[in-house]
Design a protein that fits this description.
The protein is an alpha+beta fold. It has a single domain, classed as 3-Layer(aba) Sandwich (Aminopeptidase), CATH 3.40.630.30. The protein has 4 helices and 7 strands. Strand 6 and strand 7 form a beta hairpin. The longest helix has 15 residues.
Length: 163
């Protein structure tokens, strides 16, 4: 499979909006009562932060394609900590492309293109994602990272540096 990663221009934002609906549907499986994902009256989840990726500095919307077709996305943002830290805000691979190496290709490029401090988290209920992130973080951080539950116990988080 031929994978490519593109920093998405504003004119192609609609592709990410469409992929986000699939992603949010998948993530609804890991809902909890404190932060449920709900469909709106139009039958969509919506993603309230999408426009920020073109309007705010320190946000990077990436599209993954497989053989020219949309296959996933990665939203990277910086968070104002000292030092400045990169965060994987959203990360998604379409089911058809899972277990093909697509996710590894995507996150490897994110780590290559954004060097520094990182934080990544996933719902505590999402054990499949935890397995993926442990391997990705271990590889990117040369084995030196911290893994811990967030204070509210709802997410598992990794912190590390990749350069």
């Amino acid at each position: 499979m031929d994978f490519h990663i593109l920093l998405v221009p504003f004119e192609q934002k609609h592709i990410l909006r469409n992929l986000l609906e699939i992603y949010l549907h998948d993530m609804s499986e890991f809902d909890d009562e404190k932060d449920p994902l709900e469909l709106n009256d139009a039958g969509l989840y919506g993603y309230g932060y999408l426009d920020y990726y073109w309007n705010e500095k320190g946000r990077y919307p990436y599209l993954l394609t497989a053989d020219g077709k949309p296959a996933g996305l990665s939203f990277i943002r910086t968070i104002k900590t000292n030092p400045l830290t990169f965060e994987v805000a959203e990360f998604f691979v379409v089911r058809k492309y899972r277990k093909t190496g697509a996710g590894t290709v995507l996150i490897s490029k994110m780590f290559e293109w954004h060097k520094g401090e990182w934080v990544i988290n996933t719902p505590i209920k999402n054990t499949i994602a935890q397995h993926f992130w442990r391997k990705a973080v271990k590889d990117a951080a040369a084995g030196e990272y911290k893994e811990y539950p967030t204070e509210d116990g709802r997410r598992l988080e990794w912190a590390f540096s990749n350069g």
